[in-house]
């Protein structure tokens, strides 16, 4: 479809969605789904940012069914707790958008479970979240899981000899590896769903090079990447377009 916009989203009334990430693309996804009538949980680790996102969506969409759910994708216990809480609150889930991510921190960092931060958050965290929510998704209405990739995946490779970048850490190759893993996960989930008859559609999506805080949050506010993001905005498309 040419010139597609969020206005082309069909009614999502009666459907439920979980979107990870409270800013940037996650916020725009949650806003678009709320406008279409879905009941949306916007999930992230910072309650203040989450509350701000919910308030902004409710201001833009009077009557929006949206709330914040706290989850730290760099902490497997937090992911399990979030999924358990959601299972107590609802019987099914129709949409899961695996969006949140970390990009190119200059020094190697680790998740709470001692995984390299980018691989652990972008891929392993969303893998675990999807696995915990799969029972709800199987009960959904035409359920789908959308996992965000990146153009960076084209240059990525899975380094099985140093999967957690313990011997050598280079920010961009490690980010590329994590996003390649996300795309591979989306394809494999689709294959397994078809083979087992789960009825869950799994899609990979590249949102384009969008104007979000992903670069400055990861590489740092004084990094070259953040400088490009701040002073060369014409190189990026609006987050809403992504």
Overall structural domain count: 1
Radius of gyration: 17 Å
CATH classification, class level: Alpha Beta
User: What share of residues is helical?
Assistant: 40-55%
Largest sheet: 6 strands, parallel
The CATH homologous superfamily is termed: NAD(P)-binding Rossmann-like Domain
Total strand segments: 8
The shape, in one word, is globular
Number of helices: 7
Helix and strand element order: EHEHEHEHEHEEHHE
Q: How would you write the strand order of the largest sheet?
A: 3-2-1-4-5-6
Low-confidence stretches: 223-229
Distance between the termini: 16 Å
Q: What class, by secondary structure content?
A: alpha/beta
Mean pLDDT: 90
CATH architecture: 3-Layer(aba) Sandwich
Structure description:
By secondary structure, the protein is α/β, with parallel strands linked by helices. It has one domain: 3-Layer(aba) Sandwich (Rossmann fold), CATH 3.40.50.720. It has helices spanning 24-35, 47-60, 76-89, 117-138, 171-196, 214-219, 224-231; strands spanning 16-20, 39-44, 65-70, 95-98, 144-148, 201-205, 210-211, 237-238. α1 links the parallel β1 and β2. α4 packs parallel to α5. The longest helix is centred in the last third of the chain and has 26 residues, at 171-196. Residues 223-229 have low confidence and may be disordered.
């Amino acid at each position: 479809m040419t010139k597609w916009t969020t206005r082309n989203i069909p009614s999502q009334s009666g459907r439920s969605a979980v979107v990870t990430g409270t800013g940037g693309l996650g916020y725009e996804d949650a806003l678009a789904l709320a406008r279409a009538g879905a009941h949306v949980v916007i999930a992230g680790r910072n309650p203040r940012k989450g509350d701000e996102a919910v308030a902004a969506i409710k201001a833009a969409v009077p009557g929006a069914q949206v709330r914040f759910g706290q989850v730290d994708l760099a902490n497997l216990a937090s992911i399990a707790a979030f999924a358990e809480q959601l299972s107590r609150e609802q019987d099914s889930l129709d949409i899961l958008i695996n969006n949140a991510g970390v990009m190119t921190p200059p020094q190697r960092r680790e998740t709470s479970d001692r995984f390299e931060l980018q691989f652990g958050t972008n891929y392993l965290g969303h893998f675990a979240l999807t696995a915990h929510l799969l029972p709800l998704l199987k009960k959904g209405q035409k359920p789908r899981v959308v996992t965000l990739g990146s153009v960076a995946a084209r240059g990525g490779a899975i380094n099985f000899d140093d999967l957690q970048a313990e011997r050598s850490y280079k920010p961009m190759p490690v980010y590329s590896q994590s996003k390649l893993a996300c795309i591979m996960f989306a394809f494999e989930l689709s294959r397994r769903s078809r083979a087992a008859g789960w009825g869950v559609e799994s899609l990979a999506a590249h949102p384009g090079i969008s104007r979000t805080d992903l670069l400055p949050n990861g590489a740092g506010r004084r990094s070259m990447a953040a400088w490009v993001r701040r002073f060369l905005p014409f190189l990026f498309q609006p987050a809403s377009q992504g």
